[in-house]
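name: query_chain
kind: protein
chains: 1
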Amino acid sequence: MTAAIERVQGGELQPVDVNAWIGEYPFRDVPHPTPDVLIRVLEREGFSGAWVGHLPGAFHRDPVPSNRHLYAALRPYRRQLAPAPMVRPDWPKWEHQLRDAVDEGAPAIRVYPAQWGLPVPHPGLIELADACGETGVAMLVTVRFEDLRQRHPLDTAGDVSAAMLRAIARRTGAVRAGRGAVMLVVGAGKDLIEETHWGLTPDEQSRVFYDFHWIWGPPEDHFGQLVRTVGAQHLTLSSWWPLRLTQQCRALLALLPDDLSSRASAPDFHDGRSLVALARRHVDSPPVALKERGTDRVYGR
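structure:
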């Protein structure tokens, strides 16, 4: 076991997976996409828990029924599985979806700009990023579900662009108030990560993180290059269950070059636990209230 893996999995607290789903995938069969099986997969791979979304809901117009199903399905497993529901900012009363996520203790909310056909820049996404910063909830953006070569002909959504990611990360009212949202980008490759990261200011970079499940290892060694340039402090651990091989994360760590895998220089990667702490660092307990636009009603615990 390399020092990088020992540092990630050998400590007192095992890492929390930031990207897993339950539910069927509409374009191909996925085996056993249920919470009880996910629990066993996480234990096998050395994760103590996971942020979990509802996979079929990404392809539905209305996210509310999928969120309700997610909350109900995870309720018996909440010690290990935390809901990461959808909030669609071009949908009426999206503030209610965010309020429900806060009330359910969600560490993050999910957005799917490509599946929802949102243009760049979309003002609703910026407003939602503001609200996430105020409430201490991370925003999780899925770039893609499958490689373009694998996609079903009916799956016509493209990948989320670097321009979209930079637009979300730009300064908003919440950032000026010192409550910038933490954004987690999942499914990005090396080129997209570099195009996004180096197009942001240092302050914006500090709030944007990327899972490394889709990054190539040797012989191209894109992963090692990103650890040296972008830095491990911007990279997070994930399983991508049930769409991809859950062992990919550990394999990339095991194949890090010697100068990055020695005990003295083993990098520190983020996981769900550390991102929750970053997202909530400016939020009082209980979370600050979220006011619904155009009304005097407020939402929060």
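note: Residues 48 and 298 are 34 Å apart (CA to CA).
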